[in-house]
């Protein structure tokens, strides 16, 4: 089993133990936050007289320890900027970031040790074998040789057979798995996955998610961005949607799906159906397979009212189905409103 690294790096050897803001093991404190972000802003300076780009405009976000948390948003919303700030790769303009209780400004080393990031891009040294790449990464994080779990990670990512192969001989899927392995070498409390399944085949996607679930069951907090909303719906306990550099919604996935008032009642008639007089606010879409799809607001209309209209018109019904909004509906409702 992967063990969480203490948060102290080898470079701490011989140094005075730095002041830790929180010494308690957070896995024992279920209510603790893995990430606490307050008033986070990032402005990229415009090149050659171009206006500045406000990528993050005051983000407040807390991510509970032990959760699988989804960070969603349209292209350019600011997700990568946020993740890169968490990873210590981009410097924030203003605000506070605490990772596993450590303030990024005051305890940069500890906050960096608490988080592992699997990036989107597949750049890696072609001359390193998976074993070599994992060892180099562990060295960068100052993980002592006695604490390295290279074989365990190779097993987890299914690259034991390729442990000594050159990275350039690995397939795209294998490289991606190696990126996951690299993010795990220092046994972080928090794992961030930036679009981990973009453009990968179904088999690899399923393997990645099985790994992620297992790591989460072992106590690791997972933060992921994905363009596959169905995937976020299935994987994430909670979701934040970012748009134009701000969090527009953050909620439990189930609560988010319950937010939309819209519902669709689908009726399959046995024969042709003439025009119907529908209750106000109800719209009818006649589908190619002959089904009648009635869209309505739960707050103003009931399925019973619609059924009443259909039956009163003498329609014989062979089947009925009800369609609920999915995350895509919620996402569109919350992000398609205003321009940048
Ligand atoms: N280095 C940079 N310099 C200037 N502007 C940048 C830089 N990086 C990002 N931006 C801008 O900041 C905004 C947010 O970008 P970011 O990459 O964080 O969004 P995103 O939500 O990750 O989008 P995507 O899903 O396309 O990766 C965009 O308008 C982008 O053009």
Automatic annotation (TrEMBL):
Q: Say if the entry is tagged with keyword Heme.
A: no
Name by which UniProt lists this protein: ABC-2 type transport system ATP-binding protein
Region of interest called Disordered, as start-end residue ranges on this chain:
1-25
Q: Which InterPro entries match?
A: AAA+_ATPase, ABC_transporter-like_ATP-bd, ABC_transporter-like_CS, ABC_transporter_ATP-binding, P-loop_NTPase
The record lists the organism as Roseicitreum antarcticum
Q: Which GO terms describe its molecular function?
A: ATP binding; ATP hydrolysis activity
PANTHER family xrefs: ABC TRANSPORTER ATP-BINDING PROTEIN (PTHR42711), ABC-TYPE MULTIDRUG TRANSPORT SYSTEM, ATPASE COMPONENT (PTHR42711:SF15)
Q: Which keywords belong to this entry?
A: ATP-binding, Nucleotide-binding, Transport
**Residue spans of biased composition, Basic and acidic residues class:** 13-25
Locate the coiled-coil region(s) and give their ranges. none
Pinpoint the ABC transporter domain residues: 35-269
What single Pfam family name could you report for this chain, choosing any that match? ABC_tran
């Amino acid at each position: 089993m992967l063990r969480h690294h203490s948060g102290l790096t080898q470079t701490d050897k011989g140094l005075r133990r730095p002041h830790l803001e929180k010494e308690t093991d957070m896995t024992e404190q279920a209510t603790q936050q893995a990430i606490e972000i307050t008033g986070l802003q990032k402005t990229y300076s415009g090149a050659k007289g171009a206006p500045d780009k406000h990528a993050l405009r005051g983000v407040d976000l807390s991510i509970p320890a032990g959760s699988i948390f989804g960070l969603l948003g349209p292209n350019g919303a600011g997700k990568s900027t946020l993740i890169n700030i968490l990873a210590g790769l981009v410097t924030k303009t203003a605000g506070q970031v605490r990772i596993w209780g450590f303030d990024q400004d005051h305890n940069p080393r500890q906050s960096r040790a608490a988080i592992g990031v699997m990036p989107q891009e597949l750049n890696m040294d072609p001359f390193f074998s998976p074993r070599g790449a994992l060892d180099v990464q562990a060295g960068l994080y100052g993980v002592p040789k006695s604490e390295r779990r290279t074989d365990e990670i190779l097993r987890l990512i299914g690259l034991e057979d390729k442990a000594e192969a050159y990275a350039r001989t690995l397939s795209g899927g294998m490289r991606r798995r190696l990126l996951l392995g690299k993010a795990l070498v220092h046994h972080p409390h928090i794992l961030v996955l930036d679009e981990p399944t973009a453009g990968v085949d179904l088999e690899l996607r399923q393997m990645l998610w099985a790994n992620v679930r297992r790591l989460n069951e072992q106590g690791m907090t997972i933060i992921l961005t994905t363009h596959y909303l169905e995937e976020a719906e299935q994987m994430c306990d909670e979701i934040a949607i970012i748009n134009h550099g701000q969090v527009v919604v953050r909620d439990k996935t189930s609560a988010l799906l319950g937010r939309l008032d819209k519902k669709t009642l689908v009726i399959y008639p046995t024969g042709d159906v003439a025009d119907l007089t529908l209750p106000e606010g109800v719209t009818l879409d006649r589908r190619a397979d002959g089904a009648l799809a009635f869209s309505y607001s739960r707050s103003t209309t009931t399925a019973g009212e619609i059924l009443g209209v259909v039956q009163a018109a003498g329609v014989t019904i062979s089947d009925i189905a009800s369609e609920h909004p999915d995350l895509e509906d919620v996402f569109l409702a919350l992000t398609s409103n205003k321009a940048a």
